[in-house]
């Protein structure tokens, strides 16, 4: 199992009588772009919080970067990056100050922070804006910067929670180019989204419906399985099937 970045077996999170995550099982390979799809409220964010070491499961097992989600949460946090749908940047700090702050939080040395900060600002084409407040940036640039900061310390895995919400299709495509680059550099990408077209960009996807994983495969194989042309149609068929089985 050395080539597995994430392993889940019957992972469950229950709040009273409600199961937000219902016995999900899957594995993610190292360097893979793994899509975690589902409608809002399907349980995606709850599952991701467990995998990021931010919440304990009720039952089941899971390991992230080789570390146990029950006993080794701090080790997990040191080996992952995380970008939430609401971003994690500080609007009242400059671009450089945000980069330097998170570099320190992630334990990057001062000398490396200086070198990597200059490289990052150059790569993003933000040399002239480096000393401007992040709050003044357009949404698309904030997302690109937040992603870059999330992988600044070169983690084994980066978790992206609805990273492209609210931006135009062109910016979404540019953001996915950055994801491809990170994967090519060996970083495993675990991304949640409710945009079904983004599933086409993933190596494999899982589809969650009401807290359960209803399907896992490549986008092309799932479309063949259901004899449809889009991931929207796949999701519709899975959701309809789940509803029938629950009646």
UniProtKB/TrEMBL annotation:
This is ABC transporter. Residues 6-235 form the ABC transporter domain. It holds the Pfam family ABC_tran. Keywords: ATP-binding, Nucleotide-binding. It comes from Chryseobacterium lactis. The lineage of its organism: Bacteria, Pseudomonadati, Bacteroidota, Flavobacteriia, Flavobacteriales. PROSITE patterns: ABC_TRANSPORTER_2. The keyword DNA damage does not apply. GO terms for molecular function: ATP binding; ATP hydrolysis activity.
